[in-house]
Amino acid sequence: MTLLHTDRFANWARGHLLCRVEGISDRFALTFDDGPGPHTSAVLDELARLGAHATFFTLAGNATREPEVLRRMQREGHEVAAHGDLHWPLPLLLPAAIRREVQRSVAAVTAAGLPSPRFYRPPFGFMMPGQANFVRGLGVEPVLGDVYPEDVLSPGTDFIVQRVMSRLAGGSIVILHDGSAVGRANRQQTVAALEPIITKASCIGLRSVTLGALLEGTSPRWTLDVLTRGWA
Questions:
Q1: Catalytic residue of the set 34, 83, 177, 178
Q2: Is residue 33 annotated as part of the catalytic site, yes or no?
Q3: CA distance 113 to 30
């Protein structure tokens, strides 16, 4: 069990981060961190083949090196979001450094010709409430999630699928990885897990969408509704 899946941390995180959306019965958000990377094209190929959509939280350096991959994401109906620049834990940073991390990540996306990101995921999925408010002031909504199968550790495709499906529900936000902050990590297990996850989700009436699509039709005050609820 990860820290994210403990009641105490989940309840605390929901006080200031978007972790899931209540009242959604037919869809969930599939998200990917740390890209673009060597396996991002394979992820996009699988999503296209399966008719699924996702949100990609990109790192500034990787996005700058692979702007065409970002443009492909947009063309194929996916959403590009911000994940920072150097992937440093936010609690260790002063406000000026946090501002720089967010702004560099956003700038790398817009430099590729895409709209300015709506969402931001803090590296390591951790930020303090005051930092979340600070980031909102920079024009992005901080997002975590409620389903994390630890794919970054390469635990095996079957484990990834089982961990996702054991926790997946309408309104969930699934955290996966298509890249890495350091080096060229192998994300083939994540790629291989996509078909069984998306197929099994479809069998229980859930389709994979972007974060923006997950929020469509929800109350403008969704942050208060979602973040004041306990762990489901």
A1: 177
A2: yes
A3: 23
Out of 33, 85, 146, 151, the active site residue is 33
- Spans of all domains in the chain: 3-227
Q: Residues for the chain: how many in total?
A: 232
Looking at the domain that runs over 3-227, which CATH code has it been given? 3.20.20.370
Kindly give the confidence (pLDDT) of every residue in the chain, 232 residues in length, as a single tens digit, with 9 standing for 90 and above: 566 666 665 565 666 889 999 999 999 999 999 999 999 999 999 999 999 999 999 999 999 999 999 999 999 999 999 999 999 999 899 999 999 999 999 999 999 999 999 999 999 988 999 999 999 999 999 999 999 999 999 999 999 999 999 999 999 999 999 999 988 899 999 999 999 999 999 999 999 999 999 998 765 444 433 333 322 2
Angle at alpha carbon of residue 203, lines to 201 and 206, rounded to 5°: 45
Q: Is 5 a catalytic residue?
A: no
pTM given for the model: 0.90
